[in-house]
């Protein structure tokens, strides 16, 4: 059995079609898009075509798309930039307690600057009740930032309802759509979104390039100063090859969305059904239906998720213990704690995230390996031994 990659939520490979579109901008079409001569104009044209493509994919206008170096930069710029631009109106921001750390750590920095942050809770399924957002709005609220789809458990938030609430109260609305873009349809106008963050490597594009949608009329402070690139809002010579890759990867992902989603959901449901029926003392975290097609998060009682992850890797299966951005942390997942899991269950959790290259044939090997390893690890657990002796 070839290596099985079940960590597409961390990153994806670059599809051959996308790489083919990128390659000329590393070699013969290498000009700086700010240069006035033909080689520069060629790069500038590619840059603007990519901007048009991304705008079309998101239901936006071309001049509302700005390119960045990552999803994290997009989150940072949107949140800091909007907070500082509207600070004369108020200093209150609303978010959820299951955001990515690119959002949480940015908000923590703003808190040190005197901004006040309200964290609305999620329900046990990992989904926010929009009315909790409405109830949290104050006269001095200037920004609501809520993740579109969670990177650890895959739950999709009621973005349209939250967007409408924000619009009703005259509050700016940002969503971290890094995990969602390319995997579900997004129309920024239908969803009443003012700012949105994406990253190419989550939908079969290159690493090191992202984008941000900023609705026309949205005030925002510059994040990187220097030259006049990106309509004088973000300095720095643009990563033309990466941007071309992002645009083509997003367009390709959306063109293949229906067939890809159907395939991945079929594999996902097979894995969930087999794991829950064949491995006792196991739970699925999040909502089985209101979720991204490829993300599953399981908690296994009486074991350590890190040991499970490493032993699966020895069998050629790559999964994760949660967000790749926090893999060095010993703290339990804030997302799993937010949906009510104990520290013990958090530590016994893994994330399985599927992609276009996964097949139904891989599932049997994965399930068999998982069962063997979980049983082996549980045999070393005194708590599991007590349960077995009690026959509970």
What does this protein structure show overall?
The chain contains 14 helices and twelve strands. The mean pLDDT is 95. The chain has helices spanning 16-22, 38-58, 71-85, 101-112, 130-136, 159-168, 229-232, 240-255, 257-278, 305-314, 334-338, 343-347, 361-378, 382-390, and strands spanning 4-5, 65-68, 92-96, 116-120, 141-145, 172-176, 195-199, 210-214, 282-284, 295-300, 317-318, 349-353. The protein is globular and about 75 Å long. A seven-stranded mixed β-sheet has the order 2-8-7-6-5-3-4, sandwiched between helices. A three-stranded antiparallel β-sheet has the order 9-10-12. The chain has a two-stranded parallel ribbon with strand order 1-11. The protein has two domains: 4-11 and 257-390, Aspartate Aminotransferase, domain 1, CATH 3.90.1150; 16-255, Type I PLP-dependent aspartate aminotransferase-like (Major domain) (Aspartate Aminotransferase, domain 2). It has 392 residues and is of the alpha/beta class.
Write the layout of secondary structure elements.
Elements: E1 4-5, H1 16-22, H2 38-58, E2 65-68, H3 71-85, E3 92-96, H4 101-112, E4 116-120, H5 130-136, E5 141-145, H6 159-168, E6 172-176, E7 195-199, E8 210-214, H7 229-232, H8 240-255, H9 257-278, E9 282-284, E10 295-300, H10 305-314, E11 317-318, H11 334-338, H12 343-347, E12 349-353, H13 361-378, H14 382-390
Parallel strand pairs: 1-11, 3-4, 3-5, 5-6, 6-7
Antiparallel strand pairs: 2-8, 7-8, 9-10, 10-12
Helix pairs in contact: 1-8, 2-8, 3-4, 5-6, 9-13, 10-13
């Amino acid at each position: 059995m070839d290596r099985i990659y079940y960590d597409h939520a961390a990153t994806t490979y670059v599809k051959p079609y996308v790489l083919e579109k990128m390659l000329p901008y590393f070699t013969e079409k290498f000009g700086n898009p700010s240069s006035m001569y033909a080689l520069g104009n060629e790069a500038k044209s590619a840059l603007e075509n990519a901007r048009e493509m991304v705008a079309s994919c998101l239901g936006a206008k071309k001049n509302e798309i700005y390119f960045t170096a990552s999803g994290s930069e997009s989150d940072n710029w949107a949140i800091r930039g909007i907070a500082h631009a509207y600070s004369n109106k108020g200093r209150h921001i609303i978010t959820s307690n299951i955001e990515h750390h690119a959002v949480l750590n940015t908000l923590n920095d703003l808190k040190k600057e005197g901004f006040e942050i309200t964290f609305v809770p999620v329900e046990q399924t990992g989904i926010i009740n929009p009315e909790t957002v409405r109830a949290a709005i104050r006269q001095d609220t200037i920004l609501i930032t809520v993740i579109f789809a969670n990177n650890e458990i895959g739950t999709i938030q009621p973005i349209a309802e939250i967007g409408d609430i924000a619009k009703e109260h005259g509050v700016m609305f940002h969503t971290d759509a890094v995990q969602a873009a390319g995997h579900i349809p997004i129309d920024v106008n239908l969803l009443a979104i003012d700012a949105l963050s994406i990253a190419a490597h989550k939908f079969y594009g290159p690493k090191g390039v992202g984008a941000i949608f900023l609705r026309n009329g949205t005030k925002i402070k510059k994040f990187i100063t220097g030259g006049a690139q990106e309509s004088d809002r973000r300095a720095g010579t643009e990563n033309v090859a990466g941007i071309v890759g992002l645009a083509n990867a997003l367009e390709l992902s959306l063109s293949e969305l229906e067939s890809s989603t159907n395939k991945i959901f079929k594999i996902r449901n097979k894995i969930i059904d087999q794991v829950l029926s064949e491995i006792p003392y196991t739970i699925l975290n999040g909502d089985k239906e209101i979720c991204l097609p490829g993300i599953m998060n399981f908690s296994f009682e009486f074991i350590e998720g890190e040991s499970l992850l490493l032993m699966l890797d020895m069998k050629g299966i790559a999964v994760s213990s949660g967000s790749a951005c926090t893999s060095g942390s010993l703290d339990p997942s804030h997302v799993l704690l937010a949906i009510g899991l104990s520290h013990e269950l958090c530590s016994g959790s893994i994330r399985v995230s599927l992609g276009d290259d996964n097949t139904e044939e891989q599932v049997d090997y994965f399930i068999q390996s998982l069962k063997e390893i979980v049983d082996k690890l549980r045999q070393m657990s005194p708590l599991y031994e007590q349960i077995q002796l009690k026959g509970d």
